[in-house]
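Duplicate of #3305? Posting structure anyway:
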């Protein structure tokens, strides 16, 4: 197989840089002709045309209403919106987590990616020697407190589709009915309690708490997690004891949700008939 050379790498980076410049131009100028775009990015019209043709193929650029006109494609707009939303929740969570004074453990942020829950943000506080979830660490949607939260607060239709999709990915076969029933029971408990917990699943040797984060439309966006309680705390959590860590987690998740524009109306839950993902 041909090995990539340094010049190949440089060419690829240069192409990406030019492609970004073209997309930035369309964002600033709106629907534009090749000559307007090439003048904006200071590139020859011929190379600008080739870039636009490739971007049209990818769906990142569309032909405009008028002949010879180009505009940002819907794929680019959607991807940009998702990336922006992801960066927003991570940025807000980072600041909220760092303000959790007196905590001795790790605060992490999980988002759902298909049928897995993925850690995208982690803040370590205090002197705890617990192993913390690293960025990129993931759990199947059937395992762990963050997965329980990300599944429980989906709307009914999305919940059913995800359960079905997970069956095929996990090759559950005839276990679908029992898995669905267990998931339904889990979701009802989590929605009623307002948070989920696990022991040894998200972080070995610790109890992990997870609470939902909602966006401005009331869709489940992420799960805020705290890992720092010992396994012996399980009985207290199960009994619904008024633990400082639970209160702090719910307040942190609420603060992040408010940062995303969510307004608490007392009606959040899985059966809201809406879904973002």
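Output from current build:
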């Amino acid at each position: 197989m041909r090995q990539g050379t340094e010049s190949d790498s440089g060419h690829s980076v240069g192409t990406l840089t030019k492609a970004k410049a073209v997309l930035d131009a369309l964002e600033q100028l709106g629907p534009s002709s090749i000559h307007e775009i090439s003048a904006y990015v200071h590139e020859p019209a011929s190379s600008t045309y080739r870039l636009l043709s490739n971007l049209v193929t990818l769906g990142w650029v569309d032909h405009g209403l008028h002949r010879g006109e180009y505009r940002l494609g819907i794929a680019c707009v959607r991807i940009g919106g998702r990336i922006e939303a992801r960066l927003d929740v991570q940025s807000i969570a980072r600041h909220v987590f760092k303000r959790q004074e007196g905590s001795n453990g790790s605060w992490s942020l999980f988002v759902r990616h298909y049928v897995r829950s993925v850690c995208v943000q982690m803040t370590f506080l205090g002197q705890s020697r617990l192993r913390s979830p690293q960025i990129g660490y993931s759990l199947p949607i059937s395992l762990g407190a963050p997965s329980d939260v990300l599944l429980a607060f989906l709307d009914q239709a999305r919940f059913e589709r995800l359960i079905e999709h997970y069956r095929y990915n996990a090759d559950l076969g005839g276990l679908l009915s029992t898995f669905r029933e267990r998931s339904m029971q889990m979701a009802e408990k989590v929605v009623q309690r307002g948070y989920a917990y696990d022991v040894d699943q998200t972080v070995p040797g610790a109890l992990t708490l997870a609470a939902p984060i909602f966006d401005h439309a009331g869709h489940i966006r992420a799960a805020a997690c705290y890992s720092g309680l010992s396994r012996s705390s399980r009985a207290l959590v199960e009994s619904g004891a008024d633990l400082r860590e639970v209160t702090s987690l719910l307040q942190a998740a609420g603060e992040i949700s408010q940062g995303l524009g969510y307004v608490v109306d007392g009606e959040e839950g899985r059966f809201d008939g809406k879904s973002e993902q």
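Confirmed duplicate; merging threads. The longest strand covers residues 116-125. The chain has two domains: 6-72, 80-259.
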